[in-house]
Write a structure and sequence with these properties.
The chain has four helices and two strands, in the order βααααβ. The protein has about 150 residues and is mainly α. A two-stranded parallel sheet has the order 1-2. The relative contact order is 0.20. The radius of gyration is 17 Å and the shape is elongated. α1 packs antiparallel against α2 and α3 runs antiparallel to α4.
């Protein structure tokens, strides 16, 4: 079976990426949301644009969290449970914050969409890690070809 090799960058950088994703989600959740009501439906015209954004944002947060936890000695399932709990908890916290703002409203349906996005990303991460071998890369010069 062909295994893809992906770099495992230093822990501080991985957590910096998580912080950047979480900060971006917080910014667009508290201030003017992307699209500002101009776009009403996402791809295929089935779900609202905001639903797609919530799902993708929390899938991205879950994926970056899973990558940040990649070198932990925990079992895969334990990592994925922690990742989903952290992502969904963060989303619920933002909804609570939005409930205190005059310009925003809290919607518990968004928490459900966040959970679905995080769950899909966690399952996708588990499938990916079955096909990938991570290697440590502390510098740009240490990057390798993904397939050899």
């Amino acid at each position: 079976m062909l295994r893809i090799r992906l770099p495992l960058v230093p822990r501080a950088l991985r957590w910096g990426i998580v912080l950047a994703v979480a900060s971006t989600i917080l910014y667009f959740s508290v201030f003017t949301p992307p699209g500002s009501g101009v776009i009403r439906y996402g791809p295929f015209g089935v779900l609202a644009y905001s639903t797609w954004l919530h799902g993708l944002a929390y899938a991205g947060l879950a994926a970056t969290l899973a990558y940040a936890f990649q070198d932990r000695p925990w079992r895969d399932r334990s990592v994925l449970v922690v990742v989903v709990i952290l992502a969904v908890g963060y989303g619920a916290g933002i909804e609570l914050l939005q409930s205190t703002l005059d310009t925003r409203t809290a919607d518990w349906g968004d928490v459900l969409v966040n959970a679905i996005g995080a769950g899909v990303a966690a399952v996708g991460w588990r499938i990916l890690t079955r096909r990938v071998r991570f290697y440590r890369a502390g510098r740009l010069a240490e990057l390798e070809l993904p397939v050899q």
